[in-house]
Each structure stands twice: as structure tokens, then as C-alpha cells.
Amino acid sequence: MKNFDSRAYSINDFLEWNDKKQLVLSPKFQRKAIWSDDAKSYLMDTIIRGKPIPKIFIRQTLNIENRQSIREVVDGQQRLRTILSYINDGFAIKKKHNQKYGGFFFSQLSNIDPDIQSTILNYEISVDLLVNLPDNEILDIFARLNSYSVVLNQQEKINANHFSEFKILVDRLSHKHNDFWSENKILTNQNILRMADATLVADLVIAMIEGIQSKKQIKSFYTKYEKEFDYDTDALERDFDETIELIKSVFDETLKGTQFKRIHLFYTLFTSFYHTKVGLKNLDVVRQEIETNKYERTKIALTDLNVLFGTVPFQNMSVPQIQFLEDSRRATTDTKVRVRRTKFILDIVNSI
User: Where are the domains of the chain?
Assistant: First the structure.
């Protein structure tokens, strides 16, 4: 027998219940974690943009004496506290999350857009209503929900706990180039669903800023950039986009048929091409742009590296080729090997 009811309630509904003391926001089931200012800002930016937020679970009971329904928030307390605080001018969205509405309190939004306040109040939140369920039933529901939950990987955990301009840039670039990742078989759709695209883009943007780094350092850079990210995100986005376009121009539609579709080798291809356009920190290789009339020869030279991964005996290879093959087969992502692979590719590109 179904013991819940799925509905959608507007933010204004929650405000009315709270004003009438019909909303309980501190039940025994909720964790006492406190959201950061960035997390609160990011949630409200999500709502202002009209994007969905996770559903909320509410236990509804009837007070017989006054015949009022009491709504006890079983899951979603921090989300609702954040929303109610924002509506009551408790904080403003940060500029880094929303250039248009950032820095303004809710009561000031009408000065920017006369309709935005009503849009926010009419925003609907999905709710599962648990009617008159006892505590043991609610605990059982959450035990069952958790048993089906997928364990978060590192990138998913990072994404859930960071709200910096770096994280926003990474997410934007990941989504913008979604077709490129999948069409060139760099990432599968399943990889993308588990945020492998964000991992790759974060890794690449870190290289653009800091020079080639170990992949193991991604988490520490997210933490570093959460505190301060004093970089021009527009310039970074432009340079990233232009590097992807250069790769497209050189390889046309043949990238997926090369070894460079493998993530660790795509990283090397990107850092090499980025160096020809902009230059990488701490890389002692002459920066030489790839001229348009050299695109075809560059493609052929790099595609020919496929042969190394076949049955060519070591005695027919040069020492640098053997080293590149060994570095590539191991898919190592430490700094030293990454630098070595990038230098190898740049030596080929610069010799054309």
C-alpha cells in the first residue's frame, strides 16, 4: 500500500506555513550540518535560473485540537532554511554565482527586474508527503533509500562541496563540450553521468593556470581555489575553447581513430596544443604556433604514432619513441611523466 504522496509546492506555500507555525524545521531525523555561505548562494542561484533542486520529504500530521496540519521536514531542512533566509533578506547571492542578481537582497530585486520576486515565490519544489507515518516507518524509508544510493566518486564529492568560480568554470566547460567528449569517444555517456568530464576539464584548466600537475592534485587545487581564485575566467574559457577548436581543426573528424582519444593521452594532446597557442608555465620548450598550412601534416604525424602501439619491435624505434610508448601504456598521470609526454608531442609538432 502506498504511504506517500508526491506533490509540488511553491516557495510561497512554505513561507505561509512557516508564518503560521505549521512548518517544523528541526526534527530529530535531520543532520545538524551548517551550510557555507557559498552553498547557500549556489542554491538560490539554481532557483533563480529555474533549474530543479532535490526533492524534499515532509511528514504531515494533523493537530486535532486546532485542526491544523503540521508539516515536519524529514529531509531538506538546510535547503528550506536557506530559501526562507534569502526571502527574509538574510543574505544575498554572490556575484560569482550570478552577475545580474548577485550582491542584492531579495527585497532589492524588483529594482533590477520587476518580475523576478514573483518568479522566485512561484518556484515549485518537489515534495514527497509522508502522511501520519510513525518514526520507525520514516527511518525504514530512509534506510531503503540509502540502500539504493550510488557511492559518490571523488569528483562527485568535490562537486557537492565546492562552489568557487573555478568549479563553476569547470562545470560550464564540461557541459559546453559534451558533444566533443562523446563524439570523439574520449568519454562515454556513463562516464559523463559520473562527472568524468568535470575531472578531465578541471585537470586541463589547472594545467592552463599552474602548468602541468599530477592528477592526484585536483582535489587540493579545488580547495585552494575555493579560498581564492584571482584569475580571469573569461580569458580561461576563451583559451580553453580555442584549444579545443584547434584540435578539431587539425584532426577534423579523425581524433576518435587515434590513441589520443584515451584520456591520459588527450590530456597530453591538449597541453601540447595549448602550449603552442598560449604557453604552459615551467615548460622549457619553445612556443611555436601551428600554422594553418601545417594542419594536415600535423594530423598525419600525430596519427602515425598509432603504429607505435601495434607490433613494431623496440629495435625499430628511437629512444624517445620507446620512452613515449612506455609512458603511454602505463597511463601514468604524475607530473614527471606528463611533462615528458607533452615534450615528445611538441618536438613532433615543432619539427613540421
Answer: 5-147, 154-350
